[in-house]
Design brief:
The chain is about 0% helix and about 50% strand. By secondary structure, the chain is an all-beta fold. The chain has one domain.
């Protein structure tokens, strides 16, 4: 078939989108499938001339992600993958870049 893509593997790719509000602590994202890649983004602060934002792409198997927010020092966010869930843990800082209190984060996940 012209223009088709044959995806090898045991299952059909599944996708999910959504959002969550940071709590200042650990954050668990649970899906209807086993996630293989999750993209997370948020605008943390915005003015008329500048914005502080965060974006991160994590792949199953990663145990941490270094996240840069604007001009702040990079932060380490620890990851735990378990079945249909991904948990983001704070590191040495009080709150982490992917879970700041009262900030809205959007995500996109792909898995099977």
């Amino acid at each position: 078939m012209r223009g088709s893509v044959n995806v090898p593997g045991p299952g059909v790719a599944k996708m999910a989108t959504g959002s969550y509000t940071g709590t200042g602590g650990d954050q668990t994202l649970t899906f209807d499938f086993s996630p293989k890649m999750v993209v997370i983004s948020a605008v943390l602060e915005a003015t008329s001339i500048a914005a502080s934002f965060v974006k991160s792409v994590v792949i199953k198997g990663q145990v941490y992600e270094v996240v840069q927010v604007g001009e702040e020092d990079p932060e380490v966010v620890f990851l735990t993958w378990q079945g249909k869930s991904l948990t983001l843990y704070k590191g040495d800082h009080g709150e982490h870049a992917l879970g700041r209190e009262d900030k809205t984060y959007k995500f996109f996940a792909i898995g099977e």
